[in-house]
């Protein structure tokens, strides 16, 4: 429930407003003047401030200016028993959400409170959406360790070409991010980047997913559908976890790479495709070839360039940079002030196993942002992170 601060030098008015709002389920606190209110507001957490104008030490207009300086999104409702139209206009120009004259009509106050809180929530949602829309689609490759610098250097060299790339590495190391940068730094960056998680698609559906199908090709094919290769025309198709692809689908992918043509399921017509193929796997494909699970000819087609992404344990010196990056990211997404983390807390994170690699670290930082205080301590890490 919303938290409301009521500021008035008259105790009876403060208590009347408080009782009314608490009956409606709001959580309320009171202050006698602007100075006391400002001191209380430094804690943050208020959703709305209702303040009188005429008060000793610091009046409501001064309080309004101070609150808008420090908490620009905090709605403020002004009340006064000495009001004029000019005062009301001045308050609204100064940033007040609304102005109510005394004696206060309680129904009018309740409507204003609801409107102010609804408007504030809408503004927060709008800002969150704008931050997401304005944020870079492709995150940075964070780190300055020797192993990650080798990866970044190789990506810069390979990206401008159309050479096929096989990205290897454990789950959660950032293989998809490398693939996106290979696309972003290429002349194809304006065209689609289409991702296919080969491990998540049932083997009986993978061909339809990749190459599309004609109407009536199978029972549920009620209309023609373009596959991922066609959707990626002119751009990049990213075949993630290609080591889990069926042998039948591998044969069709090999043909697509060799002839730059595909055919939809249920059709004999060839369709020319112009796509760059980037693949990734967490498996040892040489071992899979020996077991008969992966085609050797497809492996050689895909692995013109091999980019191996190291585990987080192999680049522990990058953990402080990654933690700082994820802290900024999640605080920004949630629209809260940037939280800090102590050196002792970071040191504990550096010593962890990180079997889930970057993905696990990102989840842990998000958890600490949600559960920790303004400064995340070693105690927070020990309390909220399973070591």
Automatic annotation (TrEMBL):
InterPro entries: AAA+_ATPase, AAA_lid_NorR, CheY-like_superfamily, P-loop_NTPase, Sig_transdc_resp-reg_receiver, Sigma_54_int, Sigma_54_int_dom_ATP-bd_2
Modified residues (4-aspartylphosphate): 52
One of the Pfam families matching this protein, by short name: AAA_lid_14
SMART domains: AAA, REC
GO biological process assignments: phosphorelay signal transduction system; regulation of DNA-templated transcription
Domain Sigma-54 factor interaction span(s) in chain numbering: 141-370
Transmembrane domains' residue ranges: none
Chain ranges of the Response regulatory domain: 3-117
Signal peptide boundaries: none
UniProt entry tagged with the keyword Phosphoprotein: yes
PANTHER family from the UniProt entry: TRANSCRIPTIONAL REGULATOR (NTRC FAMILY), TRANSCRIPTIONAL REGULATORY PROTEIN
Name this polypeptide is given: Sigma-54 dependent transcriptional regulator/response regulator
Species of provenance: Mucinivorans hirudinis
